[in-house]
Amino acid sequence: MTDNHPPSLATYARIIIVASMAGIISHLLRSSLGVLGPDLMQELNFSAEWLGIMTGLFFLVFALNQIPLGILLDRYGPRRVVSAFLLFTIAGCGLFVAANAVWILIAGRVMMGLGSSALIISSFVLLARWFTPEKYANATSILIALGNAGGLLATAPLAALAAWLSWRGAFAVIAAFCAIVAVLVFFFIQDNPPGKKITPAPKQSLSEQLKGTWVIIKNPATKHLIAIAAVAYPSVATILALWGGPFLFDVYGLDTLARGNVLLCMAIAAIVSPLFYGWLNNIIGTRAIAFVGSSITVAVLLTLAFAPKMDLLLITVLMTLLGGGAGYNMLILPVSRFFFPEHMTGRAVTTVNIAIVGGVAIMQMLTGFIVGAFPEVDGSTPEIAYRTVFATLAVFLILGTWYFARLGPLPNSYIDPDNDQQNNES
């Protein structure tokens, strides 16, 4: 920064807090059906396959929007992008409130996915502009932890709100919160610190903009980041945001509030653990953190898949470990900023984020068909269906972590995207 009067600590805190509120919305919406899914299925009478498709479409739309979103962020900045996209989340919640058929719910999830696609990723870009590389890991770990509070709100608090106002009333409250955050972002956030000038991405044709994204995609480091990004968060989100609630309902007979309490423990662990991983990142580095977090997650998934049926207390402990072990996953995303110049940060981060949300979409849809392949027993999905899901997720995570291990050390300076020889090395 060239300003003689750098921003105060209160200014930095305001940036993180308001950005985190946008992250809360994204996590809340993506995880909301983990608790409320069985209630929607019963009221509107649709199957597990439709629940998997509905939930997966949220992330599929989320993923498809990442390339245009990266271009928008580099061109217009996070403030205007976030406040505009929050309008889509409001519309999606409104469709849920009015829904009387599954296709309306699907349309609502598509709108929610489109709106949410800009929230967290824009916050990473915002923090990349405000914080130096040395402070960026700690800032993002705080952002992740606060944003993960949305996952916490999507458990017992959301269940209690739905029990009070119905699930339709709950989504009406979420829509109101989205409107408040849109106002806060637009009027209380600045894209850059005072005195720091970010050279905007040059005005380009669509083909030129896509060519710049292709430069990022073909960078040798990107494929390793994509490998871990596609499985780290998706393997846990598939449980927390989709099958955790039905598993606890079908296998353990828990009602909405009871399964919300179990998922609450998982969400709390997901909130706290990024702070630990952010601190550990400065000691052992992101590569080692990924191995530690993946090992914990794989161990829990394999236990759930193959151990004899356990009592509810042990299941709660395992799901809490699953949430905590996965706290490293969003630290993978900002790594992409180290390989490209600052004016390409938006496209670099969104390119890797495609793998995250695309992985969630694929895993949720795939596991929906896995669960649906097992005939119901006395009106409930059998335990073996969920065990198969846990084993499948563990295999994906093992493969993704193995390939990520082949990534070399992070560069000391940005890779020049115009250096074709460097970009084509493997």
Characterise the protein shown here.
The protein is an all-alpha fold. Helices cover 77% and strands 0% of the residues. Residues 412-426 have low confidence and may be disordered.
Poorly predicted residue ranges? 412-426
Alpha-carbon Rg, integer: 21 Å
CATH architecture: Up-down Bundle
| Main sheet characteristics | none
Shape type:
globular
**How many discrete structural domains?**
1
What's the CATH superfamily, by name?
MFS general substrate transporter like domains
Number of helices: 17
Helix content: over 70%
Percentage beta strand: under 5%
* Topology-level CATH name: Growth Hormone, Chain: A
Class based on secondary structure composition and strand pairing? mainly alpha
CATH class: Mainly Alpha
**How many beta-strand runs?**
0
The H-and-E topology, N to C, reads as HHHHHHHHHHHHHHHHH
Mean pLDDT: 81
Instruction: Give the distance, in angstroms, between the N- and C-terminal Cα atoms.
Output: 36 Å
List keywords for this structure.
426 residues; disordered C terminus; Growth Hormone, Chain: A; mainly alpha
Task: Give a quick precis of the structure.
The chain is mostly helical. The chain is 77% helix and 0% strand.
What is the strand and helix layout of this fold?
Blueprint lengths: L8 H36 L3 H17 L1 H11 L1 H21 L3 H15 L2 H12 L2 H15 L1 H5 L2 H33 L17 H13 L1 H10 L2 H21 L3 H51 L5 H14 L19 H28 L10 H22 L15 H4 L3
Helix pairs in contact: 1-2, 1-5, 1-6, 1-7, 1-9, 1-12, 1-13, 2-5, 2-15, 3-4, 3-15, 4-5, 4-6, 4-9, 6-7, 6-15, 7-13, 9-13, 11-15, 11-16, 12-13, 12-15, 12-16, 13-14, 13-16, 15-16
